[in-house]
Amino acid sequence: MRFLDVFAPLTCIVPEIQPPPKRVTYREKLTWTTITLVIYLVCCQMPLYGVRIGDRVDPLQWLRMMMASNRGSLMELGISPIVTSSLLMQVLQGMRQISVDMNSQEDRELYQRVQKLFGLTLTLIQATLYVASGMYGDMATLGYANAILLIIQLFLAGVTVLLLDEMLQLGYGIGSGISLFIATNICENVIWRAFSPTTVNVGAGAQFEGAIIAAFHLLITRQDKMGALREAFYRTELPNITNLLATVLVFIVVIYIQGFRVDLPIKDVKVRGGPTRMFPIKLFYNSNIPVIFQTALVSNLYFFSQLLHKRYSGNFFVRLFGEWRPNASGRLVPVAGLAYYVSPPKNMSEVGADPLHAFFYLFFILGSCAVFSVIWLQVSGSSPEDVARQLKKANVRIKGYREGSVLKVLRKYIPIAAAFGGICIGALSLFADFMGAIGSGTGILLSVTIIFKYFESYAQEQDQESQLFSGNTRSLF
Question: How far is 186 from 180, CA to CA, in rounded Å?
Fold first, then answer.
């Protein structure tokens, strides 16, 4: 019996959304995408019932943006369970531990249902571990009734995220819920760091948190204008203008590199003398998938490492996974173990103090993004073999090559684009961290690639609707 068949009887309890019975117009997709975004934002602002977070230190604060989560709200878990289940299934399939025929609709549907079942199971497990680990206080103070209530809230919020993501991916909306939530969370953080009107006491007096507002306030209130300008650009306790300019620079660099691609001329084999079209193979062939999986891997490592260290800090093997200590602001940070080596150095002084940490982090980012990109290539239906089948089914071949040579040409470009693109994504993330961009390099990279993909989706939708209006409904795939 196959691995998927073992879980097939349990998939009947998994909630699902039926595909749209007819073609959804772009206006309808935009409406459903907006509704999805509003639901997500409401859940981000709706506090969990039965617990008060207060000023309690958030041990996962620096991962919140990439997880699309918000501390103390219904979106506490964010997209972590869904991405983790997807990562687990794809790794098992890549290792040939799962036998599935992606050309069979029945197998594809079973695979997706089992993946959703894993996602819901991981949601329940993570919700239970969050409560049991003392994230909201110890059990004696919290009480078992409140603990169960918190688990139920987190689980239902996870179900909501899964259904919203599925609804968009089925064609009711644009893109995917995961991408939408990540981009929204990251952009919200960048805008808040730039224009936040809240004040923070930094020792030498209160200053505005937002970099731009603080710059204007310092220039207006200080007599020494050059000193005020210098502080606005280089203050260390709060976001500064240099961080903001670095963020803009990274946005521009990523948008520029998004355009790198190889265009293969293709033509219809049944239409003699027909027009030649272009089949693009982009440098970011797998888009932001590698960095999403890498973020999910690190976030789960951090969470379980903190949980184990809190309970068994003296155990040798637990310390190998990560040793955690509070920093000056009271936030737990990794100081040793695997969790420490996969965390980014904060500045050049840390790089000089521990070059092994910097080299390991560099190798980990570049290597993991490349590996995840190649794995995704094999399991997502975008490998050279899959693309060759799609071209053949559409009666299309590469101009200047025989039909039997199409696969050879695709193998020449696609695997290199996937692996090198994954390395470039990791390098861009490191570049943003080094430049001191607001948020993190991974977060900015995710937001840019997601927003760029939405622009591409908009252009494709407009092109399809114009073809439909003119009566030309033929497309490549």
Answer: 10
Domains in the chain: boundaries: 1-172, 243-477
Q: How far apart are the first and last CA of the chain?
A: 34
What architecture does CATH give domain 1-172?
Orthogonal Bundle (1.10)
The pTM of this model reads: 0.71
- Which segments of 137-240 does DSSP mark as H helices, in order? 139-142, 144-167, 177-195, 211-221, 225-234
- Indicate the length of the chain as a whole number: 477
Fold equal for 1-172 and 243-477: yes
- Tokens matching residue 89: 């299934």
Distance of alpha carbon 99 from alpha carbon 107, whole angstroms: 9
Dihedral angle of Cα 392, 397, 398, 404, to the nearest 10 degrees: 70
Quick: pLDDT tens for 337-382. 888 888 877 766 777 888 888 888 888 888 888 888 887 777 666 7
Place of tokens 């439909």: 468
Report residue 365 as tokens.
């980012």
CA distances from 215 to 191, 196, 205, 210 (A): 15, 12, 15, 9
Q: CB-side exposure of 120: number of CA atoms within 13 Å?
A: 17
List C-alpha distances in Å: 340 to 129, 354, 358: 22, 11, 10
CA distance 181 to 295: 15
Q: Hey, what CATH topology would domain 243-477 get? A: Preprotein translocase SecY subunit (1.10.3370)
Residue with tokens 């506090």: 47
Rg (CA), the chain: 24
The angle that helices 80-94 and 105-132 make with each other, rounded to 10 degrees, is 130
Write out pLDDT tens, residues 190-243. 888 888 888 877 766 778 888 899 888 888 888 888 888 888 888 877 888 888
DSSP 395: T
Q: In whole angstroms, how far apart are CA 158 and each of 69, 84, 98, 335, 475? A: 11, 13, 25, 31, 36
Residue recorded with tokens 């293969």? 264
